[in-house]
Specification:
It contains 13 helices and 11 strands. The protein has helices at residues 60-68, 70-73, 90-106, 117-128, 151-159, 174-182, 219-227, 245-248, 251-272, 276-297, 306-317, 327-336, 347-354; strands spanning 19-25, 31-38, 43-48, 51-52, 141-145, 164-169, 187-191, 204-210, 230-240, 339-344, 361-367. It has 2 domains: 3-76, no CATH class; 90-244 and 322-367, Vaccinia Virus protein VP39 (Rossmann fold, 3-Layer(aba) Sandwich), CATH 3.40.50. The two termini are 33 Å apart. The protein has a 7-stranded mixed beta sheet, sandwiched between helices. The protein binds zinc ion (ZN).
């Protein structure tokens, strides 16, 4: 954890100051392992392999950390781990996304879904954030809500090269590839819930969340939470699943896309609630069966392995929540939160880049109040 991150983070409960206790530091003097202490709340938050973990509920990770640093923690028995119950659905969101991203993160996979990091740079430059070069003021601080496997953050650091980037996720796979990401001079990685962020409100030039907030119990509540962290005059980019995407295609291919949509509607609630062992076996079997077919249709076939097929299937069928929204609905969220829409994602640029239709609802708002 780069020491300068301390200037930006605060206690997610009371927004108070955090005091570090360092158990191990790297050659630059940055905290490698240790805790961050909030005295008024009498809480401690672990920092492991350079990644601070601001969850307000306890996980197996806390138990492992406690075992690993038992002697150092003895001095801090007057402060405790947070022990609130997880928010609605939050433990399930954490479990399924940790399972989804762990194999990709562990092996530092080349692909994020079907995209290489170069594809992601182009995607951000031309489709999601095409408005950035037109701004008079430089974007210097960005909060990335939901960093998944981490490659999106690397791509963003190339597109937003004037900005420091703080990437958050609730999935614990981040602990595997986070240290690699943090080697980049402008990137910080934090594990936390988007509903209890360890930052001061109105403190970022840009908050960016692509394909993330619809995987929470309420997309609107997630939107309301993250929208508070943009400074006045700053920007909020959000992309969520679209309500009518499965209705757009006509003919045979349209019929198949609607069958796939129904398969998801029927099976995702069952699979997301199944025991982990069953889920892993299910995705492995279906992955082996479908891999040859998937391989025929994906970009970057040379880099695509069965691991990518299984990852795609997990992303489709394992999240507890996958809400869909209309453009008007999302526009209203922005407007009611004091934003003016300044940009809508570029469907034409997407098709030019990837020879496919763009789906979902993506836009940027500037915060007026
Ligand atoms: Zn506190």
């Amino acid at each position: 954890m780069k020491n300068r991150l301390l200037e930006r983070i605060c206690c997610p409960k009371c927004n108070g100051h955090l005091t570090p206790a360092v158990f191990a530091s790297d050659t630059d003097g940055n905290i490698q392992d240790g805790i961050l202490v909030c005295r008024p709340c009498a809480l401690r938050f672990p920092v492991a392999n350079g990644i601070p973990v601001f969850l307000l509920f306890r996980t197996g990770f806390h138990a492992e950390f406690e075992k690993r640093f038992q002697s150092q923690l003895a001095e801090y028995s007057n402060v405790r781990w947070p022990s609130e119950p997880p928010g609605p659905g939050e433990a399930e969101v954490q479990d399924t996304f940790t399972e989804e991203w762990e194999p990709i993160a562990r092996d530092d996979d080349d692909l994020t879904f079907t995209y290489t990091t170069d594809d992601l740079v182009k995607l951000n430059r031309s489709v999601w954030l095409k408005w950035v070069p037109n701004q008079e003021t430089e974007i210097q601080s960005t909060l990335v809500v939901g960093c998944g496997g981490g490659k999106e953050v690397l791509a963003l650091s190339k597109v937003l090269d004037t900005s420091e980037i703080i990437a958050i996720d609730i999935n614990l796979a981040v602990l595997q590839n986070g240290p690699r990401l943090q080697k980049e001079p402008g990137i910080h990685v934090v594990v936390c819930s988007l509903f209890s962020l360890p930052f001061r409100e109105s403190s970022f030039d840009l908050v960016y969340s692509q394909g993330v907030i619809h995987h929470n119990v309420s997309t609107k509540a997630a939107f309301d939470s993250i929208s508070r962290y943009v400074r006045r005059g700053g920007f909020l980019f959000v992309w969520v699943y679209g309500l009518d995407d499965h209705l757009v295609l006509k003919g045979g291919i349209g019929f198949l896309s609607r069958v796939a949509w129904w398969v998801e509607k029927i099976f995702r609630p069952i699979i997301s609630r199944s025991p982990r062992g069953f889920r892993e076996l299910f995705f492995w079997i279906i992955g082996v069966i479908l891999h040859p077919l998937v391989l025929l249709r994906v970009r970057n076939q040379k880099s695509w392995t069965i691991k990518n097929t299984i990852h795609g299937l997990k992303d489709w069928l394992s999240p507890r929540y996958a809400h869909e929204h209309s453009f008007n609905e999302v526009i209203e969220w922005y407007e009611r939160s004091g934003y003016q829409i300044i940009d809508v994602h570029s469907a034409a640029a997407y098709r030019d880049l990837f020879q496919k239709r763009l789906w979902g609802v993506g836009m940027t708002g500037a915060r007026l109040s």
